[in-house]
Write a structure and sequence with these properties.
There is one protein chain. The chain is about 30% helix and about 20% strand. The chain is of the alpha+beta class. The strands form two sheets. The protein has a four-stranded antiparallel beta sheet with strand order 1-2-3-4. It has a two-stranded antiparallel ribbon with strand order 5-6. The radius of gyration is 18 Å and the shape is globular. The chain starts with a helix and ends in a 6-residue tail after the last strand.
């Protein structure tokens, strides 16, 4: 095993680092696309971007990015605190509400779905379009069963292509 490991070339990481002003410009353009979504941009350690996305009076999402690549997303209720005790954005604590914990899980799945390393700005725009589909989280019925609640929860899944709402058990 040692001999074959020596012959194998080492794989170099292929992360594309874009200038911060380019990232700011892309985020600004996305913010203008959706008037019911406000996007605040923070740079806690210089180059990395953290977005605080407020979607109407429904939810707040913290989107942690490296350049234009989304690392993680935390979704909380509109009235939930998104700041830690030291006044910085709390990128680790989950929501107190099961509905927003589910949306956070679905957002993580969406990050895996929207992968196109050659066009990171399209990925961010697609993800934000998907996230914006939650504007009617508590008003849209499930497209399969037609109910507004199932097990006490609204339809938290959004189809990646059509953006239609489904309960977890109805999406198969």
């Amino acid at each position: 095993m040692g001999a074959s490991a020596k012959r194998r070339p080492k794989v170099q990481p292929t992360t594309l680092v874009l200038p911060p002003h380019y990232v700011d410009d892309v985020i600004s353009r996305i913010g203008r696309m959706f008037p019911d979504m406000s996007i605040e941009l923070f740079r806690p350690n210089g180059t990395s971007a953290v977005l605080l996305v407020t979607l109407g009076k429904v939810l707040k999402a913290i989107v942690v990015m490296r350049s234009l690549f989304i690392d993680r997303t935390i979704v909380r209720g509109f009235k939930e605190n998104v700041y830690s005790e030291d006044g910085k954005l709390d990128i680790w604590s989950k929501s107190n509400y099961q509905v927003f914990q589910k949306v956070t899980d679905h957002a993580t799945t969406a990050l895996l779905h929207y992968q196109l390393p050659q066009m990171p700005d399209v990925v961010v725009r697609s993800f934000m379009t998907w996230l914006r589909s939650y504007i009617k989280l508590f008003q849209a019925p499930c497209q399969r069963c037609g109910k507004y609640l199932q097990d006490g929860l609204p339809p938290t899944w959004r189809d990646f292509r059509t953006l239609e709402a489904f309960h977890d058990t109805c999406r198969q």
